[in-house]
Amino acid sequence: MSDRIYGGALVxxxxxxxxxxxxGDIIQLGGQACxxxxxxxxxxxxxxxxxxxxELLTIHxxxxxxxxxxxxxx
Length: 74
Description:
The chain is mainly β. The chain is built from no helices and seven strands. It has a seven-stranded antiparallel beta sheet, with no helix packed on it.
């Protein structure tokens, strides 16, 4: 995990699964940065991600994605 400053916020690139993905995560898809607006639990541990653009992505338990996440100040 590498920390860096992005637009004034401290962010890190991390690997997530359907268990660890969160609202606000930014996922690079097809060269476009997509921020997760909402997520819904599906059967067998899968999740449906809803991006701010309105697009949907379903990830399964074995799916691994690298996301940019804003870190909270301690």
